[in-house]
Structures are given as C-alpha cells and as structure tokens.
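Deliverable D5.2: sample structural annotation.
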Amino acid sequence: MATLQGEPVDRPAVSFYEINGLDERPDDPDPFNIYSHPSWAPLIELAREKSDRIVMRSVPLRAAADPLAECTTVETWTEGASRYTRRTIRYGRRVFTATDRRDRDVNTTWRVEHFLKGPDDLRAWLELPGPVYAGEPDVTGVLAAEAALGDSGIVMIDTADPLCLAADLFPMAEYTVVAATEPALFHRLLERFAAVLWPKTEAVAAAVPGRLWRIYGPEYASVPYLHPRFFKEYVVRYDTPMVRAIQRTGGYARIHCHGRLRAILDDIAATGCDGLDPIEPPPQGDVELREVREKYGRQMVLFGNLEASDIENLPTPEFEVKIRRALAEGTAGPGRGFVLMASSCPYGRILSPLALANYRKMVEVVEGVKRQT
C-alpha cells in the first residue's frame, strides 16, 4: 500500500502475479487442479512466506438479472484429458453457441468456438435483450480474502473492460476485422457492456473503497491487433469512467496491457490510471522500463518487466541479470513506485526446478536491495 500511495518503502515490492499462496489448493482432488502436483509446493510456500501477495478477486452482483437466462443452456462433458463446456443461446430463430476447453495438465481455458463468427452475427446479437445493471455488489469474497491475508498482502479487485467483453465474443481474426471496419457497429456493442460495467464499478468502489483494481482488456486495441488510433476510441473512451469511479472512493486503478506499448502509452496515461502492468521488455514488448519510468512514473506505479517465458527457460544467472536491470530501471529517479513482477506464471502441471530457482532468485535479489539500504 505504501508503494501504491507513493510513500517510501524499505525495499521494492516483489509479486508472483497469480501465484499468491492463498488460492492454490494442493489438496483439491479435482484432476484438473495442477497444483496438486508436489513440484508446486515449494513455490506456493515461497509466495506465502516471502512475496508481496496481491490476491485477485472479482465481485459479482447479488440478484443480478440475466435477460437471456431462460433461453440459455449449458452442457459440460469430458473427452480424454479435456473438459468442454458449451453455452447455447436460442432466441427466436437465431442460435448462438460458444465452446470452451480445459486440459487436465494446463491451467488455462481456451475458447475454441465463439458466439459471433462475423458482422452479421453481431447485428443479430445486438437485437437480443441487452444486459442491465441490477442488484448490489457481493463483496464477501474480497473481505474473506483480506481476513485470510492479514498484513501479508492485499486484495486486488479484478474486472474486464467493455472491450474485453466485446472482443471475447469473436475469434481473434474476426474481431480485428469487425473492430477495424465496422466501428459504428462495434461501438454499439461496447456501449451495451459499458451500460453495466460503469454503474457496477461505481457500486463496487463505494462498497470496498481504497482498494487496488486491475482493468484488463486494453491490449485488444494495441499493435499488432489494431491501429493505435483505435485505442483512444475503444479503451480511453470506455475505461476512463471506470478509472475515475475507482479513484473517487480512494481506490487505485491499474491498467493491464500486454505487448507493444510505445504507440499507446500517452493514451494509457490519458485514462488517469494509477498503475500499469506488465510492461514486457523487448522483444515481447517495444519499450524499455526506464523510458516508461521517466515519462509516466510520477503518475503510475509500474508493475512487471519480467517475462514469464524467461522464468521457465532462462538459466538463473541470466535471469538474475534481467531482475537487476528491472529493479534498477523501475526505481531510477523520481517516481511513484515499482513492483517487480512477471508478466504471468507457469501453467503446466509440473513446475520445473529451473522455474523454482528463478522465483527464488527474484526474492533473493529484492531482499539484497533491502540489506543494501
């Protein structure tokens, strides 16, 4: 919290992103739970004992009304080592289907079929009853996590933005074509999601004020997916009201955007956000951390600058070089604060000894900075 508030700290913060030592359940017998493998146990303990834990929680709405509930069916089945979930919406003569796949040894979900296959589907989708804001925030998950953490970490409220919800309806190729060639139509879709997300953000921020938030989705309007001019249209326009609502009750809004940032950094700053992650180093990104710190560090707390693939693949001495460079650039000169963090985390069932050693090196180097001060 001192870092978020721009106050002095005895050492830079270090976060393992999704790995927080609270949500990983080694004793969960679900065959799709990768953390049941014993290779994860030392990292879970390291996260719990040595990292600055940032636990993500979404906030649902109590008694939220779904205008499509009566015409939606959900079926789940297993084939081999994969679990599938299909959602089907039947409205009038139209049928929309989306299918997700989860593999037993990989901690992620793939959307293998999307609801909308092109602009004609989007036009038909816009004829469906739109989502409406209703109910009140259920913050019990946030408060329970905070109680479990005590003073060992904080909860970060996690929310998609309108662009994320809109883009997720399409296969990536179709999304880029529709967003680039049908902006008026695409704005109609964004406005539908904003009509719920804006008042929900206000209500959640009022119910649990002063928390860190993560807003994800802006990367859908970054290079190479769309021309940078669309970032202002599809992100700044719709995310700025969310940022302001969070800040009105003393919260901190962090924008999450992978990839190439150079062409959109001014627009990210224009939202008024308090933080940015994960600021991936070249070649995954296209801007150095020192440049971001020099130009935007007084406004934003900077999170990241370590690439998840390096955690899994770089020999530890080479990874240490990257750690020390990130710390040097992230804390150089005046600025609000820096959190050393990877862009993501390993998601295979077996955590390699190399990855564990690299996580340990992150903690060791940060604690060395503390000893030097």
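Annotation notes: The chain has twelve helices and 14 strands. The CA atoms of residues 294 and 333 lie 8 Å apart.
The annotation will be released with the project's public dataset once the embargo ends.
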